[in-house]
Every structure is written in structure tokens, then in C-alpha cells.
Amino acid sequence: MLEFKKRKLSDDKFEACAVFDVNNDGMPDIISGAYWYEGPGFNRRHRICEVAEIGEYHDDFSDFPMDVDGDGWPDIITGSWFTETLRWRRNPGTTGEDWKTTDIDRCGNIETIRFYDIDGCGVPEIFPNTPNEPQAFYKLLRDADGKGTGHFRKIIIGDAPSGHGMGFVDINGDGRVDLVLSGGWLEQPENPYRTPWVFHAEWSLGSASVPVIGHDVNGDGLVDLIVGQAHDYGLHWYEQRRTEDGSRSWSRHTIDGTASQFHDLWLVDLDLDGKLELVTGKRYRAHNDGDPGAHDPIGIYYYIINNGRFDKHVIDYGPAGEASGTGIYFWIQDLTGNGYPDIVAPGKDGLYLFENIGPAKERLR
């Protein structure tokens, strides 16, 4: 059983975060919404820029690092549901100025954003989950030296609204990562820029998490899907089955039916045993008070995966204000240097850091 040391870094209600070296001092920093927290102590808070408050939300559903303009300083990719615009914020470096925000594209309502190097160029492409629009991705255009130019190319790969939920999974085992959506999957062709990708309607995942995770849960050699319900109760895995003619079918199994609003999932080796654990939790008041289970206690959990069984372990649990959920985009990375991945959890309940201090039995040796 792992133990975690919990710290509340802020009462601010931003729902996304990231970890990267903001000031190029060699130490990871924590970024969330309008501020970044200087490592290694994370006690010094620095302003990024004003982030608009829209109702009980903020206009910031992603804080992903990317050196967009090629100046050697990591910038931020962001966007949200309300302004329908994909944006980047320019890191001013040592000047201390506010980060200038520049629009990339008015792409429609953004549930959140994920990133994957789909063409193997070494720089991830930007994949916003836009439920009401066909799926697209954005490629950073780089100069002859490989540096970002501040401009992007948009590639539309779907021809119907993508729905709520998205993940990067090689469904058919051809070595190319496909794009999982709530109603099926887009098959990546040999050339990812040949569009549209072929869509296969093989399931209905509901208000699926971002991401949907691909993992061989039961060890049969076929990739399965791990899916949270982002706006309802339920955390499930979908077992892939194959017939002799190669056709696929999917059987749903419940991992955890006791909580709702599993919006973000990670698969990571938390205990350093060489096996991946599922880490997730409740996004506090994802639709404010409009989702099933909105007033239930919140929490963060990890699940040990054992041949189709998921053993649940509680990291934090309780009422908002005492416990933490996971927001729309939480982050896992070793921040203390002990080798164990730590958890940064944003949300309407505040920003928390959970330092992973490892199994209790190790500390008692």
C-alpha cells in the first residue's frame, strides 16, 4: 500500500494543470490556470496572465507545454468549452511580463485537449476533444532548424461530430495508433495526413473520459479499453474479443460503480514494481451540480490491475474542502526525486500536491 503526503497549494478553482520547467532552471514547476508554482518547494507563486472566469468555470481546460515560437522557453497550449478557441500562451522568459495569449483556431467547444506525436516528428500534435465537431489535430510548423514558428496546420480526420471522449489506442494491432472516440474509432492510415480516416462504429461509450486508455487488461494479447464516465456513475473496461474470421466484439465490465465523474485517467507505475496502475478520481462538480453524484464525496484512487481484476486503493476521499478530486486534467510525475511518481490534482476544490513516499514497509526497513 502506497502512502502519500498531501499539500494544498492553492484555493484557486482552475481545473487543469501541468508540470514542466517554466524558468529553465533545471527544476520542474507546477502550472495551473493563471499561476505557476516554482519548484522544488512550490511555495513561490508567479502570475501567468488573467484567465477569464465564466460562471463557475475558468477559460482553461489544458496547460500543456510546447515551445511554440522556438525561443527555447516552454509555452502553454490551452482552450476551453466556452470560448470555443484553441490558444497558446507565450512564455516571456525572464522579463516577468504577463504571458501573451494568441488564438490558434476557433474550433468549436473544447472538452479538453490531449497530445500525441502522430507522425513521429518528435513534437506532439494537438488533439482537442470537440464533441460537436469532426475530429481534427494541429501540427506545429517548424523551420529548417526544427524550431517552432508560432503557426499551426489543421488536419481534419473525421467527417462527423466526434462526441465526448478521446484516446490514442492501436485497436487493430497494425502498429499505428488509432483515435478512439465515444461512438467508435478512427483508423490511422499509413500516412496520417491522408484524410478522412476510416471510422469504425464498434461501441457506444457514453460521456467517455478523456483519455480513453488502451491496455491489455486480462493478458490475452488483445488491447482492451479503460473508460470512465465523465458525467455519470461508472468506471469500466471493455474486453476485446475476436472471432476466427478476425471480427471484433466488445464486452463491458465494471471496475468501480460507486463514484461518478471519472473525467481524466492515467496509467502509470506508481509503486515501481514494473506494472502499470490505473489512477483516476472524481472531477468535482464537472457540470456544477448537474451530474449524477454531484454532491457525493470526492476522491482520488489507484487500482492494481491483476488479470482482469482491479483492486482499489484510496489516496484521498471525503467532502470537498477536505479531500481532493482530479479536475479535468491532472498530472503525474516524480517531483521530489525519490523515483516515485507524485500527483498534482487541480479542480474547483483547489490545487493539491500528493507526494508519493512509497510503500510503508520500505520506509520501515
UniProtKB/TrEMBL annotation:
<dbReference type="InterPro" id="IPR028994">
    <property type="entry name" value="Integrin_alpha_N"/>
</dbReference>
<dbReference type="InterPro" id="IPR013517">
    <property type="entry name" value="FG-GAP"/>
</dbReference>
<dbReference type="Pfam" id="PF13517">
    <property type="entry name" value="FG-GAP_3"/>
</dbReference>
<keyword id="KW-0732">Signal</keyword>
<protein>
    <recommendedName>
        <fullName>VCBS repeat-containing protein</fullName>
    </recommendedName>
</protein>
